[in-house]
Every structure is written in structure tokens, then in C-alpha cells.
Design brief:
Length: 68
């Protein structure tokens, strides 16, 4: 089944996953509410469960900073 996947197809698949992952990691790193440990756990979750981790971060992980 995978013998017909060429280099360009693999590159496209990699970009489709890497771009959202990088956006998520940057979002986690810039979050001012989460502690360092919480950020590390979220990055680990995003890495171990690729799409589920990204969805979870953007739905329940991000908490807005307190209003000034």
C-alpha cells in the first residue's frame, strides 16, 4: 500500500503535521498562565498523541491570562 508514496508525498505529509505542531509548541511556550512543568507536559502530550494533543491544547489547555 505504501510502496507508491514518493518523496514529495512524504514531504507534504510531514509539513501537514509539522506546521500545526510547531504552532502548538509556540502557543504552549508563549502561554503565561502555565508553569514550566505544565508546559513540558503539554508538549509531551502533543508529541505522543499528535492530532489529539493539538486539539486538546487548543480546546482545554489554553487558558486566557487574567484581565488587567
Amino acid at each position: 500500500m505504501l510502496e507508491n508514496i514518493g518523496g514529495l508525498h512524504l514531504l507534504i505529509l510531514a509539513v501537514v503535521w509539522i506546521v500545526p505542531f510547531v504552532i502548538t509548541v509556540v502557543s504552549i511556550a508563549r502561554n503565561r498562565v502555565a508553569s514550566g512543568t505544565a508546559k513540558a507536559v503539554w508538549v509531551l502530550i502533543a508529541l505522543l498523541f499528535p492530532w489529539l494533543g493539538l486539539i486538546l491544547w487548543f480546546t482545554i489547555g489554553r487558558k486566557p491570562a487574567s484581565a488587567r
